[in-house]
Fold:
Amino acid sequence: MTADLRRSILAAIARDGSNVAARLAEQHGVSRQSASAWLAKLKREGIITSSGVGRGVRYQLAVSASVQEVYERAGLNEDRVWRGLVAPQLADLPPNVRDVWHYAVTEMVNNAIDHSGSERISVGMVRDALNTSAYVADEGEGIFLKIQRALNLYDPREAILELAKGKLTTDPANHTGEGIFFSSKVMDAFDIRSGKLHFVHDDWGTDVLLERAADAPGTLVLMRLANDSKRTLQEVFDQFAAPEEYTFAKTIVPVKLAQHEGEKLVSRSQAKRLTMRFERFQIVVLDFAGVEEIGQAFADEVFRVFQQAHPGTRLLPINLTPAVEKMVKRALGGGIPKQDHLEEH
Structure:
């Protein structure tokens, strides 16, 4: 069994553990018996497990490592968590993968130590043959409420938009505000849950806001990365650096996060909320994916008023519907800026 075939089988099981043999047979053009033989081999190796029988059998990726610990926050150091709990479980993974985990785990634990005010911090990690997942949880005020209070925001949902922009911290003397932003970008999936809000950076690089019925206390950060990921910290940092510079000078902002449920982006106040802190960046890529239309006042405030007041910040709109493009062009009085400095994200 080749490495590519093995990964394809594991990925199929991770997506859906039912009807796996039939799906694999169709995908790879083999008999169902051959696909079942592949699954039996991986099961003998302890890489996958199954439950049920016959056509009702379901497959799961076997857990190869699982650790968790609860720490007293007072006096805790993030390196202690990394070296004592997480790093030993990742020792055989590629160096770039270990580097990504080192960065993300220590950043998220440090955030919980410095910002949560919680008495305890919980950290856990689970690994299988395909991915490693980890969580950092605290019992504090909750990240979205804390940001709302610190920035005097009207709604805690606005805190998620600020997190997506980057360079956000409630303690500027001791933090740059880069930790959550870059941790969300280096992971395959990154998820923050607090209160009723749920901020997800998913496998496709999309930032999504979800709302839940339950009001969860504290803050829970969930992260997942493929064990054979080719991603490096440097390439992610470089995506958000200005050309020929080594500073965090560029950000990609999902405009949809500024659009609350049932609303359309039409007002100047919505535009001002969107552009808050844009002046801290040299380049702001405005991703309009999921936004069907915008109003004239909103477009004018973003692309004319803000741009005239902050000529040092370049706004680059992408993923425009024809209706949005029409409003942007109207506000700009012509064409849309070229995206010559925008790398694929």
